[in-house]
Design brief:
mainly alpha; 4 helices; elongated
Length: 160
């Protein structure tokens, strides 16, 4: 049963990764550039708001899946030496570094959500400034760079 549970946990963890990182990469690479190019004012704000709202439930679900499966996978790992032994071996150093970055990404995700809402309000007010949208683009780019680093740390922590 343990092998099946580990397999299921790894699969769900990867599905959540695809959902979460897929959203932010698509937001930065596809949605924002398209919306900014083809929509202005209220239409742009409405479209951005709707996209953000549609993905929110998926983001929350992915975070819950991460917490549950990640905890199980961590404690079932042979290299795990217990909660307080953060630098016991290479694996724990990589995993601690990864989770510090993941916490940063969670905070950044909340910040992006608030920035989207604030940016939507600014755009909907027909203000000529694109500053909120440029800020959102930079935050999404930072999220995507962080995601690549998390994936790198995860790959480095994998055993043969």
């Amino acid at each position: 049963m343990s092998d099946a549970l580990i397999f299921l946990s790894k699969w769900l963890h990867m599905v959540a990764t695809v959902a979460l990182l897929g959203f932010y990469s698509q937001l930065g690479i596809v949605y924002l550039p398209f919306l900014i190019k083809h929509f202005k004012g209220v239409e742009l704000g409405t479209a951005l708001d709707e996209i953000s709202d549609r993905f929110l439930a998926w983001i929350i679900a992915a975070l819950i899946v991460f917490a549950v499966t990640g905890t199980y996978l961590m404690v079932s790992e042979d290299s795990y030496t217990g909660l307080g032994h953060l630098f016991a071996n290479t694996w724990t150093i990589l995993i601690v570094s990864k989770h510090v970055l993941v916490l940063f990404m969670a905070v950044l995700g909340v910040w992006i959500t608030f920035a989207v809402k604030k940016g939507v309000l600014a755009v909907k007010s027909d203000a000529p400034s694109f500053e909120p949208l440029n800020r959102i683009r930079w935050m999404v780019a930072l999220m995507n760079i962080s995601a690549l680093l998390v994936l790198l740390l995860t790959a480095l922590a994998q055993k043969d």
